[in-house]
Each structure stands twice: as C-alpha cells, then as structure tokens.
Amino acid sequence: MTEEVGAITGELELLSRVTPGGDIEAMVRYSGARDLYTVSGSPLRAVSAHPDQVEHRAAHERILETLTTPGRIESDNEKPVDLLDG
Fold first, then answer.
1. Is residue 7 assigned to a domain?
2. Number of structural domains, the chain?
C-alpha cells in the first residue's frame, strides 16, 4: 500500500533513506519509473537516533521482507501489505 495511490503491484523498486530526524523512510516505484510513492506506515523509527549504514541496510532488508511477504487472505482475496503489518 502507498499513501498516494493505494495498492500497487508488479515489478517495483524499493528506496529507503534516513530522514533528517533519523527515521527510515520507505518509498517504491514501478521498475524504471521516476514517480516515487510513500509506503504506508513509513517512516519507521530507527533503532538509534542516528542510524549508520549497517542499521539502515538492516532496516531496508526488514522493509523488503515485509513488502514481499504475501498479505493475509480474506474472502479468497489477498489483503494489501504495508509497513504496519511487519
């Protein structure tokens, strides 16, 4: 799920970055596209006040795992996934 356009599917790219406040922001875009969409539940609070490259990479991997894990099934339909699910 994204804040701007709701659920998106297909081949996507994940961008994560540390915000000035030290949180981890997650955005996705269709592969090769320019438009970025904020993943619902972003930004995530980092473990430390000033995340280093190792912490940022670990957070990126956790975000990627959450977003690539199928959503729960309700009434034979898969529910969208956001970072609040992870």
1. no
2. 1
